[in-house]
Amino acid sequence: MQENKQPSEIQGELPEPSEGESVPPQPANEQANADMDTMPRLEETLRQAELKAAEHHDAWLRARAETENVRRRAQEDIAKASKFAAEKFAGGMLPVKDSLEAALASEKQTLESLREGVELTLKQLNAAFQNAGLAEEDPAGQKFDPNKHQAISAIEAEGEPNTVLSVLQKGYLLHGRVIRPAMVMVSKAKGT
């Protein structure tokens, strides 16, 4: 008869092999040691993964801050550019203003000296316009272009219709963009 043993007493005992049966050795201590060795390796791997994650998070935060700084600087540059866009042109206009004031300040002027002064002032103005990228549009004799010209009237004339006959007011382009269209009179075919 077998004795009834308590579960705590059974735990440490191994069943005896019957005759002719071989029992593989149970590495109880080896398994425990392997578990002990695996745990520190897992903890170390976890710690390294957490450090990597912290590094990546820090790098992401820095990149985000840098992106925000670049965006903020770009907005400031755009604001400054629009605020001071006319600075170069204004600098070119100051000599023109000085010349006009000097002409008005002089009391003893002849018509000839006044004309010379106005011509020199006009040259200064044209140079300021050219430096700023502002060009005249004087289309006399050219084909009418509704993108650059504004027709005031059409007159029957010989030659090809829609040709600019006369320019009432010059137009101006800023870097190729129409600032003011030229006001023109164009030709039309006779009898229309």
From TrEMBL:
Gene3D superfamilies: 3.90.20.20, Head domain of nucleotide exchange factor GrpE. InterPro entries: GrpE (IPR000740), GrpE_CC (IPR013805), GrpE_head (IPR009012). Keywords: Chaperone, Coiled coil, Cytoplasm, Stress response. It is found in: Cytoplasm. Its main location: cytoplasm. SUPFAM superfamilies: Coiled-coil domain of nucleotide exchange factor GrpE (SSF58014), Head domain of nucleotide exchange factor GrpE (SSF51064). Residues 38-51 have a biased composition (Basic and acidic residues). Residues 97-128 form a coiled coil. Residues 1-51 are annotated as: Disordered. Pfam families: GrpE. Participates actively in the response to hyperosmotic and heat shock by preventing the aggregation of stress-denatured proteins, in association with DnaK and GrpE. It is the nucleotide exchange factor for DnaK and may function as a thermosensor. Unfolded proteins bind initially to DnaJ; upon interaction with the DnaJ-bound protein, DnaK hydrolyzes its bound ATP, resulting in the formation of a stable complex. GrpE releases ADP from DnaK; ATP binding to DnaK triggers the release of the substrate protein, thus completing the reaction cycle. Homodimer. Belongs to the GrpE family. This is Protein GrpE. It comes from Aromatoleum buckelii.
